[in-house]
UniProtKB/TrEMBL annotation:
Helicase ATP-binding domain location: 53-212
GO cellular component: cytosol
Protein's UniProt name: DEAD/DEAH box helicase
Organism listed in the record: Nocardioides marmorisolisilvae
Pfam families for the chain: ResIII
Length: 608
């Protein structure tokens, strides 16, 4: 049984920076056969191997890269417990990205018998004698790095740097982390997403030249998503992509129509995504309804499975919650900011069986809610780091056969990130930042823009008004392959249910087999169906007729643009002025047909 070091202060009055650590009664005496008591019954294979590597090399700095959901917290706390037991260290400092994660670390450490103060701040300079360690944020370290350095120097300190890529969020943060923890006895760095979108070096991380001569981060141990999936440590993820017809008005007054999922310019893609995610539009309502249907199917096998909607800003989060309440018949839990009350809401949701939680950014990284199984990516943030962190909330496996489902717009960027789930990346130094969606593009600016809300977005993209949207099911993306049906698949159709109805408990190989079977079954059914007899008037359901006409009109407008150079929005506005009626997204079939006929007439006159 490990006790406090003999040379630790024995007074009951705290000194300027700390007091004696409390007795530790639950450290593991059986390393490495099991994890520290209070976490799990035994270590996973990767954890045991990584811990073995750690103590074999006995390093001052160690970087462990492990996919979200793999168990980095248990790994780190097991090392911390062993170091305390061997009296190599006598204090612990955990540095986390957010206030909520500080509390989460303190709770996990308490189960191991390591009391950590999550309310510590450098300004007060001391903490209770009941604590062996403290938990702070990277921002907190940056406010007073000197105080943290003095504390680190006074004791044999292990510093656990959780999601260490945040130490590169700003050059000042990296400098503060280096100043504060340079005297540490040991430093253990953890991350699930090691790549960053800038070229700021991450403190205490080793870099080695790659094949192209550019320095790349060198992890001491790496455990990727693909490996974790094969070990059944994480769930397989099915991405449900939804496209659809969208229309908006630009600040110049032009009306623009586009189809989500088709190649678009950078500006049009940004406007299309915002239009799809507009809470007042039908696209997001349709996707939320599909996600709720999927959650119902998953809960047949996993009764406490929960869902999470990740929104761009607080107004959208509230609006999505209102829509979900009508769909699910149950008010979702809303998490709007990184405050203590929000942490309590997350904890309550994690321990309960409520269906949905709606949040902005704070639930995107590190937050541990293992029962999350269905997600809706309803944010305008389209960066690889944020996407990986968000998807990481759904992959933690509790039992064999659990799957994760993430619903997202059929955006080229997002689908690209989804198809690269198993790709491991390193932090690269010296690479040029550009603005064209490069994987290392300036991510922080995009995150700040999304967090600032609609005002910042409008300033960047130009003031615009979402006029209408309609969602269609595109396909399911799994293990880099697409599964779906030919033609336009409407929300709520049997074709969509072919995939929404897939059981929530399946092994990874069963997932692929069933997806292939559903796709093949529908194809064979369509091939066996008798050729339809064309009636005098096509018997088409109203919404299908409207979709066909919108596509025809948009195609003609695009051809007119190619022929004359006239912007799409100008052509739509001219047709509305000439023929009357509302925007194409809400126009009737007759109004759409009139505009189609008018544009064909214009094309004929120009040719003659």
């Amino acid at each position: 049984m490990a006790r406090t070091p003999d040379d630790a202060p024995k007074t009951t009055e705290p000194d300027l920076f700390d007091t004696a650590p409390a007795p530790l009664d639950k450290l593991s005496p059986a390393y490495p056969a099991r994890a520290a008591w209070g976490t799990v019954s035994s270590l996973r294979a990767w954890q045991s191997e990584a811990i073995g590597n750690y103590f074999a090399t006995d390093p001052q700095d160690f970087l462990a890269v492990a996919t979200p959901g793999a168990g980095k917290t248990t790994f780190a706390l097991t090392i911390a417990a062993e170091l305390l037991s061997r009296r190599i260290i006598d204090r612990i400092t955990v540095v986390a990205p957010t206030e909520h994660l500080k509390t989460q670390w303190a709770q996990a450490a308490a189960k191991v018998g390591i009391p950590i103060d999550p309310a510590y701040s450098g300004g007060k300079g001391r903490t209770s004698g009941d604590f062996v360690g403290i938990a702070v944020t990277y921002a907190g370290v940056a406010t007073n790095p000197l105080a943290m350095r003095i504390r680190t120097e006074r004791f044999k300190t292990l510093v656990i740097l959780d999601e260490i890529h945040h130490a590169g969020d700003a050059l000042s943060w990296g400098e503060a982390v280096r100043e504060a923890f340079e005297p540490a006895k040991r430093r253990l760095a953890l991350t699930g997403t090691p790549f960053r979108s800038d070229v700021n070096p991450i403190p205490f991380v080793s870099y080695a030249p790659g094949p192209d001569g550019i320095p790349r981060s060198a992890a001491d141990f790496t455990y990727g998503y693909g490996h974790a999936l094969r070990d059944h440590v994480v769930r397989p993820v099915l991405f449900w992509a939804y496209g659809g017809d969208l229309q908006w008005r630009t600040r110049a007054g032009d009306e623009v129509s586009a189809r989500l999922g088709e190649p678009l310019t950078k500006d049009m893609a940004a406007h299309a995504l915002r239009t799809a995610l507009d809470p007042a539009g039908s696209w997001i309502g349709s996707v939320l309804a599909a996600a709720d249907q999927r959650l119902t199917e998953v809960r047949r096998g996993v009764p406490d499975a929960g869902g999470l909607v990740i929104a761009s800003d607080q107004d959208s989060a509230r609006a999505y919650a209102a829509v979900l309440a009508k769909i699910a018949g149950e008010k979702p839990v809303i998490v709007l900011s990184d405050e203590k009350t929000s942490s309590k809401r997350i904890e309550k949701f994690a321990a309960g069986d409520a269906r949905w939680m709606v949040a902005v950014r704070m639930v995107s990284e590190g937050v541990d809610v293992p029962r999350l199984a269905v997600g809706v990516y309803a944010t305008t943030i389209s960066t690889p780091l944020f996407f990986a962190q968000a998807v990481g909330r759904f992959v933690r496996a509790r039992a064999r056969g659990e799957t994760a489902s993430v619903f997202l717009p059929s955006s080229m960027a997002l689908l690209g990130f989804a198809s690269e789930m198993e790709v491991e990346r390193d932090h690269v130094l010296g690479r040029t930042i550009n603005d064209e969606g490069d994987i290392f593009a300036a991510e922080n600016a995009l995150l700040a823009q999304a967090q600032a809300g609609e005002a910042a977005s409008s300033e960047e993209l130009g003031r615009f008004e979402a006029l209408g949207s309609q969602a269609t099911f595109a396909h399911v993306l799994y293990d880099g392959a697409e599964f779906g049906h030919a033609g336009e698949v409407h929300v709520g159709s049997e074709e969509e249910m072919d995939f929404l109805g897939i059981p929530g408990l399946l092994e990874p190989d069963q997932v692929r087999s069933l997806l292939q079977h559903r796709q093949k079954q529908r194809r064979e059914k369509q091939a066996a169906a008798p050729e339809p007899v064309e009636p005098d008037e096509p018997d088409v359901v109203a919404h299908e007729r409207l979709a066909i006409l919108r596509r025809e009109l948009n195609g003609l407008v695009a051809a007119w643009n190619h022929r004359t150079g006239t912007p799409h929005g100008v052509t739509h506005a001219a047709l509305r002025k000439e023929c009357g009626g509302p925007a194409a997204a809400v126009a009737t079939a007759g109004q759409l047909q009139e505009r189609i006929d008018k544009l064909r007439e214009m094309a004929t006159k120009k040719s003659s």
